[in-house]
Amino acid sequence: MKYKASLYKKFGYLGLATFTFLLVDSLIYIKAGISDWRIYTRLIIGIGGLLIDGYLVFFYRQKQSNTAEDKRRSFTLIELLVVLAIIGTLSTTVVVSVTPMRQAARDLERAVDMEKVKLALETYYDMNEQYPTGDGDGADGWDVGNQNLPFLTQNNVSELGNVMPDPPRDSTASGNDSGYKYKLYNAGENGCDINKGRYYVLVVKQMESKNPPTGPGWKCGYKDWGNEGDWVYGKYEH
Questions:
Q1: CA-to-CA distance for 225 and 218, rounded, in angstroms?
Q2: Nearest CA-CA partner of 213 in 113, 87, 144, 95
């Protein structure tokens, strides 16, 4: 009995901290959209380990504590605080290490959204022989899409129609000058080639990661739109 109690005391806390770490770590990865069979395996091990170890530490051991000496071996408040401190330290370490990965994942999602919008714009042009005008709800007449403003949408109806009934928007940006941006310029505006007709510029402003996707860029005439955002693309009508 003494040997078992000693083992529980030595390895019980470590087991709780380890399985909690696995659980928190896998949940953070899943929430960030980074998941595969290894992440789910860690999640299952974390949950199963917590249940088994929690039973052994807090329930089974108490059932075996029939003498005054055994009862004195019960966990104290200080011991529990030590366990919580270990778990908190491990969780903080995971959050700090995962944050850049979450930022990179969101930036990649933004770049993918722009590729979808580009394809939708071309399909719309093939059907209507022009690009949508945009609603100009953002700063300097840009059509902005983020938490506050709908993208390529007027009166709650997508300007791209059935081609893209629900245009994407940046889920973390806010205000009238950040997130997804679209603007249709008149032919010859900014000194661009008037013979090529109107042109649109598509921008993602304020990406999060240190090395975000940049897009092909766009410049014509005397203007370079590279300063408008982190990801930039543009195209003439003709």
A1: 6
A2: 113
- Burial of 145: CB neighbours in 10 Å, binned 0-12, 13-18, 19+: buried
Looking at the chain, list the stretches that DSSP marks H as alpha helix, in order from N- to C-terminal side. Answer: 2-31, 37-55, 61-64, 68-71, 77-128
**pTM, rounded to two decimals:** 0.66
Of 36, 40, 32, 24, the residue nearest 84 (C-alpha) = 24
d(CA 53, CA 50): 5
Taking only the tens place, the pLDDT of each residue in 92-137 is: 555 555 677 778 889 999 999 999 999 999 999 999 999 999 999 9
Task: Quote the CA–CA distance of 213 and 202 in Å, as a whole number.
Answer: 14
**Cα gap 20→15, rounded to integer Å:** 8
Amino acid identity for residue 92 in this structure: T
Task: Express each pLDDT in 53-87 by its tens digit.
Answer: 666 666 555 555 554 455 445 555 555 666 666 66
Count CA within 13 A, CB hemisphere, residue 124.
21
User: What per-residue string of b and e applies to 4-32 under the rule 16 or more CB within 10 Å gives b?
Assistant: ebeebeeebbebbbbbbbbbbbbebbeeb
